[in-house]
Specification:
Layout: H1 6-25, H2 40-47, H3 55-63, H4 72-88, H5 96-105, H6 113-131, H7 140-151, H8 155-163, H9 167-180, E1 190-191, E2 197-198, H10 200-207, H11 217-228
Antiparallel strand pairs: 1-2
Helix pairs in contact: 1-4, 1-6, 3-4, 4-5, 5-7, 6-7
């Protein structure tokens, strides 16, 4: 029996994502876009095999306004493996919520089943890997925002967090609470670049169900104050 670590499972999921999109990513397409922001050479590169597009250009497409492209959804879908790999490995230094919002705009939930399933497997592996490593390649709140906004649901990811009894998971929890409790905005907290997903109420309820000892006394006091005030 071969046992793989969470980080290896993530690498395997990223490789499977590449494979699922290979027929699409390797076929040349016509790419039209803003001629002011992108030179002809950029558009030519985007039209060729996705694996050959420079990282800097991938990062630009990842966050660019939708109206900069003639066929935004098709372009974003084609570059999704490259965008996601850069995001997951900490090489895409942009708002995680924005990438999730762009994926929603690209209609990823309507893509062919193999592509959807491959992306979902990356999200699950990324989340589990994050909870097993501290410090990691990104903040746990950013990872949670990306996976929950893109899938439209917070609860499954919180359930995994509750079941992950690692020291790293609890360290991430403490750091997340430091962030969420700052400014006393937890009940109204939203995820997503456009605030698509209201998560505050669900987070408060979930935090109060965690086993004793996972949250420090001072933070727990503040959560209870927020919940019952």
């Amino acid at each position: 029996m071969i046992v793989t670590t969470p980080s290896q499972q993530l690498q395997n999921a990223l490789d499977a994502l590449d494979a699922a999109f290979a027929p699409l990513s390797e076929s040349p397409i016509a790419v039209g876009g803003c001629g002011y922001c992108y030179a002809d050479a950029d558009l030519e590169a985007l039209a060729g095999p996705a694996c050959l597009v420079p990282e800097k250009l991938i990062a630009s497409v990842a966050v660019e306004s939708i109206d900069h492209w003639d066929q935004f959804a098709a372009l974003y879908r084609r570059l999704t493996p490259q965008i996601v790999r850069l995001l997951v490995t900490g090489r895409l230094h942009v708002d995680h919520g924005l990438v999730a919002s762009r994926l929603l705009a690209a209609g990823w939930r309507d893509w062919p089943a193999p592509e959807q399933q491959a992306l979902e497997r990356v999200w699950e592996a990324w989340w589990r890997s994050t909870l097993h490593e501290h410090p990691g390649t990104g903040q746990v709140t950013e990872v949670l925002e990306a996976v929950s906004v893109s899938t439209g649901s917070l609860s499954p990811w919180l359930a995994v967090w509750a079941d992950t009894r690692t020291e790293a998971a609890d360290q991430h929890l403490g750091a997340a609470l430091d962030q969420w409790l700052t400014g006393r905005e937890l009940p109204e907290l939203r995820f997503g670049f456009y605030d698509e997903l209201l998560v505050g109420t669900d987070l408060v309820g979930w935090l109060l169900t965690l086993d004793e000892g996972r949250i420090g006394a001072a933070q727990l006091f503040e959560i209870e104050r927020v919940a019952y005030s």
